[in-house]
Amino acid sequence: MIGWMLHNQKENPLYREFDYLLEILKEHEVTLSLGNGLRAGAVHDSTDRGQIQELIINSELADRAHAAGVQTIVEGPGHIPIDEIEANVLVMKRMTDEKPFYMLGPLVTDIAPGYDHIVAAIGASLSSAYGADFICYVTPAEHLALPDVEDVRMGTITARIAAHIGDMIKNNDRQKDLDMGRARRDMLWEKQFQLAIDPETAKLVRADRTPSDAEVCTMCGDFCALKIIKENIDLAR
Question: Could you report the per-residue pLDDT of 161-208, keeping only the tens digit for each?
């Protein structure tokens, strides 16, 4: 779009005709996602003047969309150091009058190509905890290549993990973690698989390295603290 604007020396037509665009969106009941072309492309560009100025404009556009009866999501930045996430979420929610806010991760470091799904999950878990309403899934192929099916699967799982971590804080949703703790204490493997975000991977790892005593795992084997304590408690009874 910037290339088109520079080549034609004209304003962004979507911005110039925004009210007409809203008429079309309302007629077809489309939700508008307001992107941010000036968001940081690296952590060293985060929370700069361009990003904030664009946020001000997007906040005004979101108000106009709301007044026109068009549902709107406001997108946030994608590369932010971990110590700036809370401030970014707070500013975004305040300036947009608590409208739905979508964080593109964020990635909290730029030096982990091949592992950006993990980097994004770290940022997304904090974004969610601080109040972001939507988070973006990022794949291991980010910044490297077009993702394949396995990349998409991995990115989706890590995003779900991040969302759950955020909900643990934002919504105090910790029941599954309590249930998992009890299942591990009681060495109930099937229950652990049922509670797992990715049960198939958990089952594969377990099946590949199951010890002769199927009640424990190969990390501690015969020296499993939980089993030893359980046996001694049973003897004491």
Answer: 999 999 999 999 899 999 999 999 999 999 999 999 999 999 999 999
Tens digits of residue pLDDT in 114-134: 999 999 999 999 999 999 999
The answer to whether residues 52 and 103 belong to one domain is: yes
Q: Which domain holds residue 132?
A: 31-173
**For the whole model, what pTM was predicted?**
0.89
Is 181 inside a domain boundary? no
Q: What would the DSSP string read from start to end of the chain?
A: -HHHHHHHT---HHHHTHHHHHHHHHHTTPPEEE--TTS-SSGGGTT-HHHHHHHHHHHHHHHHHHHTT--EEEE--SB--GGGHHHHHHHHHHHTTT--EEE---BS-SS-TT-HHHHHHHHHHHHHHHT-SEE----TTTTTS---HHHHHHHHHHHHHHHHHHHHHHS---HHHHHHHHHHHTT-HHHHHHH-SSHHHHHHHHHHT--SSTTS-TTTGGG-HHHHHHHHHHHH-
